[in-house]
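Researcher: We're reviewing a set of sequences before deciding which ones to prioritize for further study. For each one, I'd like a predicted 3D structure that I can look through quickly. This is Exodeoxyribonuclease 7 large subunit. If possible, include the structure in token form so it fits the rest of the review sheet.
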Amino acid sequence: MNDDHLFQKLTAEPDVLSVSQLNARARQLLEDVFPRIWVEGELSNLSRPSSGHMYFTLKDDRAQIRCALFRQNAARVRLAMRDGQQIRARGRVSLYEGRGDYQLIVDSVETAGDGALRQAFEELKAKLQAEGLFATERKQPLPEHPTRIGVITSPSGAAVRDIISVFGRRAPFIELVIVPAAVQGREAAPQLVQALERADRAGFDAIILSRGGGSLEDLWPFNEEMVARALAACRTPTISAVGHETDISISDFVADVRAPTPSAAAELLSPDRQALLRQVEQLQRRLQQRLAERLSRARLQLDGLRRRLRHPGERLSQQAQRLDEMELRLRRALENRLRQRNERLQHLQTRLTTQHPGRRLQRLQEQWQQLDQRLPRAMQQQLKQQQTRLQQQVQALHLMSPLATLGRGYSILLDQHGKAVRSAGDTRPGQRLSARLQDGTLAVEVIKDEPHTLSLLD
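Model: Here's the predicted structure for Exodeoxyribonuclease 7 large subunit, in token form for your review sheet.
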């Protein structure tokens, strides 16, 4: 959570707060800012009132903090707590509003030496989880009616006695085979691996891996990687029942099923004899009820069929009456269809009369006569317009023609190629030219060229 946002939210409150308002906001701030944390220190001032809660102080050489361990969480702590003990407590930071005391609300306690084991536990857990050993899809279902079960545990421990007691009470017909192995100490992990391999080859319907409660160090063989991998390699369905209900081991995550206690594991695999008898009785009652219901429905169905069964003569008379009704309906349908067809025929005849070819030819002939009368007039008018336009263009052409200029006394000089001579500079003495007049052509010779520019005033 953003701390700046919390402080901004607090500063938005009124400037003057009551003591209870201040403590409430301080508690909210502490609980929002600090997540669940571990704190290590020396235990002192331990008190156990009759309420079942525990109150103590954690301190080091420079500071201390009050701690509260409420009854529900205190019942799960197996550590024998005493003053002067070095412990590690997990909890959330809060504030006791009544006195304004800053405190740690504890939910779990362990000795300080368990910290390294706890870290190793979390690291191995993360590693195996990443490899998929905890995946739900690889879990095998337990058999519904097992007949032979292998139990891997210490032959002299309390766990094996609890398991035997539950099976003896609930399902004495199931065969139990004890596969002995050490469940504590350095030799426990290799022996557990060997026991798992032997039990998996023995063809049991299921395997129970179990031991009683203890400290984290006592239960550590069930947190070893070799045991976890041997458990994951088992083709036989497995149940992990290690410690008490609050104890969690790596074996619990790898096994197909986790049982909170050895007795619970036995109950999962042992069908209760009395419950089975009750189930058989219940199924018998349900079967009898279903048979009675089936017979009752069959009687009702038989009665119904008996009432529906009638004399053939009555049925024939009903069919004859129905045939008469259908004949009348058919006749009415034919009359309606014939009337509709006649109406449609009359409608089509009316449309055909209006669309007769003779009328259309008459209209076309009238249009042709009108066009025949308009065509000569249009042609005469168009001819007159074209003649007028031709005369106008002839007059304009005459005005622009060089022949009109020649008629006013001018001539056009042409060289031997027939090109008009436009400038005296285009000629040379002795050159023969032809002069174009209005009524003919003269052959001339250039004697002398004298360039001279004329203006309109000359």
